[in-house]
Specification:
The complex is a heterodimer of chains A (109) and B (113). Chain A is mainly β. Chain A contains no helices and 11 strands. Chain B contains no helices and 12 strands. In chain B, strands 2, 5, 6, 10, 11 and 12 form a 6-stranded mixed sheet that branches. In chain B, a hairpin with a 7-residue loop joins strand 10 and strand 11. Classes of the chains: A mainly beta (109), B mainly beta (113). At the A-B interface, strand 4, strand 5, strand 9 and strand 10 of A face strand 6 and strand 11 of B.
Chain lengths: 109, 113
């Protein structure tokens, strides 16, 4: 069974903290994606990666960075969390079809 | 640019009612079209897809037909169940853009017994 896992389901952080969201897939997919999901806005692409050590900006990359040191792992980093980054974060991986993780609901206080 | 527009929710139906969720798109090139479903507390799952004009995607009683002339991909089900309560997302991907998906804003469906 295909699996995309995310390190936390719920996370509470304070403004200014550095935040790491981890995503791991076991399908040997080359493509991985990070989205944020907000009510009324659907999913918006933050960053994606086609291969190890490669990254591409999505539609809303400001305030985020990513790391892909191994094929199966794609990390989203909030260098200095702000309250407007409170959201649901979804990771996905794909060969042709995208498979999603369960999401991390991040609250920044 | 590429974009997807869905009908606004929430949509509330009684069990066994007919469901339509409208989706229209704007795209350069030849998009593939998708419907994803998100059950409460879960990530998104692919519900169905269509890769070229006039294709019909179907799964779990849901159907959608790729209509190039009206740039639409409306989701339908003849008889909804309480277990269909979820958020539904229409999405597109364009060839040669690495599988990136562009999503609509989502439509929440609530089915009452």
């Amino acid at each position: 069974d295909v699996k995309v896992t995310q390190s936390s389901r719920y996370l509470v952080k304070r403004t200014g903290e550095k935040v790491f969201l981890e995503c791991v897939q076991d399908m040997d997919h080359e493509n991985m994606f990070w989205y944020r999901q907000d009510p009324g806005l659907g999913l918006r692409l933050i960053y994606f990666s086609y291969d190890v050590k490669m990254k591409e900006k999505g539609d809303i990359p400001e305030g985020y960075s990513v790391s892909r040191e191994k094929k199966e792992r794609f990390s989203l980093i909030l260098e200095s969390a702000s309250t407007n980054q409170t959201s649901m974060y979804l990771c996905a991986s794909s060969y042709s079809e995208q498979f999603f993780g369960p999401g991390t609901r991040l609250t920044v206080l | 640019g590429n974009s997807v527009t869905q009908m606004e929710g929430p949509v509330t139906l009684s069990e066994e009612a007919f469901l339509t969720i409208n989706c229209t798109y704007t795209a350069t090139g030849y998009p593939s079209l998708f419907w994803y479903v998100q059950y409460p507390g879960e990530g998104l799952q692919l519900l169905l897809k269509a890769t070229k004009a006039d294709d019909k995607g179907s799964n779990k009683g849901f159907e959608a037909t790729y209509r190039k002339e009206t740039t639409s991909f409306h989701l339908e089900k003849g008889s909804v169940q309480v277990s269909d309560s979820a958020v539904y997302f229409c999405a597109l991907s364009v060839y040669n853009q690495g599988g990136k998906l562009i999503f609509g804003q989502g439509t929440e469906l609530s089915v009452k017994p």
